[in-house]
Amino acid sequence: MTIIVLIAVLAALGIAFTGVLISTAVRRGETRPTGESIILGALTNFFDTLGIGSFATTTAWIKFRHLVPDSFIPAILNVGHAIPTFAQSAIFLLILGVHVDPVLLTSCIIAAVLGALVGAPLVIHAPVRLLQTVVGIALLIAACLYAMSNLDLMPVGGTATALPAMQLAIAVAVHFLLGSLMAFGIGLYAPSLILLSLLGLDPRLAFPIMMSACAFLMPTTGFSFMKSKRIDMRLVIGISIGGVPAVLLAAFVVKEMPIVWLRWGVVVVVLYAAFLLLRSAFRGSTVAIGEAA
Fold it and tell me: Which of 103, 144, 167, 286 has the lowest tally of Cβ within 10 angstroms?
């Protein structure tokens, strides 16, 4: 019953979010995505579904190509990847969600959403140098996590489908923090998977939790971000259009593939993007027009 309710709420939220996204793009006159943004959405969300992640890779590409000012990055990540994440969450809830303790699943979702409500206003009004620093550090953390995964240093997890009261409280508290950080463009997937595995949960059951937490919190931040000047709706729409079919392809057709060498490539790319962001933050260089809006 819990899964049915969550999917119903997710569907309603997805419809409302899509409507606001389209109306915002029309009002801003930013309705025509580029081919590059569609391809970016397809590639990042395809590999996100397979376990690579989308925030770090999208940030790296945006930074390399100078597609938008650095201060736009958190909004584009949270809004652009929201609709593809809806699809991911629905798929994993239907496939694996029935086996997850509904209290654990619902509690982590609510905690992440509440955290996002705290984080989004901070991001919208944060100085550009602070955002550059936070996103740069997030990329360094992501690169370390990719390397740990390739070196088999990630926690193996347990076999539990639920957590005792103390571990449940820890999971809820940490997901609140992760929800707040998600607004800054720090991906939730890897930290959530590590946390739940360390607490003894079956790692397979972490997927519906972390994907559903993101699916519910991203529109929470997205509604606020779409009111801000720090966003490019053409890039957002392109990522959304390319992302949904890529998620379906990865989940139902490809399902799994060897991605170890791809992860090492991502480590190099993400480290370089982190260097560029942190260099800009520490130099305090003049920002591009509109970046401080």
Answer: 286
